[in-house]
Amino acid sequence: VIHLSSLDTIANEQIQEQTWKYVNEGKIADVFSPGMYELSTQNLPIISTLKGWKYGFNSPFKAEIYFFSTKVFTNFKWGTANPLTIRDPELGPVRLRAFGNYSFRVNNPSKLLQELVSTDGLFQTDEISDHLRNMIMTSFASWVGEDQTPLFDLASHYRSLGEQVRQAIQRDFAQVGIELTQLLIENISLPPEVEKALDQKASIGLLGNMQQYTQYQTAQAIEKSAQKPGTSNAGMELGMGMAIANQMMNGMQFQSSPQEQLPMTPPPPPSQGQWYLYQNNQQLGPFSIHQLSQQDLNSQTQVWKAGMNAWKTASEIPELTFLFPVAPPPPPSMEKQWYMYLNGERIGPLNQEQLSQQGLTRDTHVWTNGMEGWKKASEVTELASLLNSTPPPPPQLV
Length: 398
What we know:
Elements: E1 2-4, E2 10-13, E3 18-24, E4 27-32, E5 36-39, H1 45-51, E6 63-69, E7 73-79, E8 84-88, E9 92-106, H2 109-117, H3 126-146, H4 151-154, H5 158-174, E10 178-189, H6 192-207, H7 210-226, H8 231-256, H9 258-261, E11 275-279, E12 282-287, H10 289-293, E13 302-305, E14 312-313, E15 338-342, E16 345-350, H11 352-357, E17 365-368, E18 375-376, H12 384-388
Antiparallel strand pairs: 1-6, 2-5, 3-4, 3-6, 7-9, 8-9, 9-10, 11-12, 11-13, 13-14, 15-16, 15-17, 17-18
């Protein structure tokens, strides 16, 4: 800030990335872009004459000139002071941190002067960096809470996500005369314990099954023990080394003759209630009973769990019989419904017992589904038993 008092003339040749404000008695009188200017009392002839009457109309005047740099200020850091809790569509509730950098420039010096600079004679970027960073973090927290992008996909969208946040926050920056020219997201990270769990899950997925994972964990334990030499560690390494050797030998034998080794070499004992399958010359598992029901399991599939002497077919194990329900017997055939024509009236539907009760005779006309037309009862084989049960007429008395 340059204060003008008794000076009548000031000359300024600005560089390209500067602008300056002429302030008279606390009010912005004019704005000057880069160039050569001469400022004197003659620029304000009327007001300077009125103000200088007590000086014999040869007046000084008091004014202030504020210079503003309009270049782009780069490499300002932003980051989360505390973890943000969000709900991820794949992981559920998680906490994350984020950091990056941003760039800005002054695009409205008058508004910046009114809102932030005020009477500060030397106003620097450090004085507003905290304020700008807080504005960024507030908008970032709101945006990441609304966005539905899975965390695993964020890394491939850092550039576009940074631009979305920049556009969302630009309105807040404009209120203080500043343009946010760029916002970069350098990293969005999870807590160390969550990252460790994800790494272990990925390792298991790459290894394929629990037996290979056990070998991997054993090898890792040997490597760590080697970094801490001692007699106890040596014995531990020896025991684990023998365990790996046995597993490798069993694996080789299992691959060379799987049919012979099935009853002799069951897999390592799993935790209680965990099942293993043997399908397509491959051991699968462990599975809970619920997971087992979702596999391609049939009654002849070989299964095994802790406590069994050998592999068995699934149909031999009582615990698994519910997975193979017995088909119900065929439903009983539906009893035919009969109609009879008696005394000029059609009667029915009736079952055979009801036919007999209605006074069925050999000459009674009957019909049921499947017959082409009415027939005498004596012509229907299915009704023979009913007709035979009718006693013959009594003999005539001589």
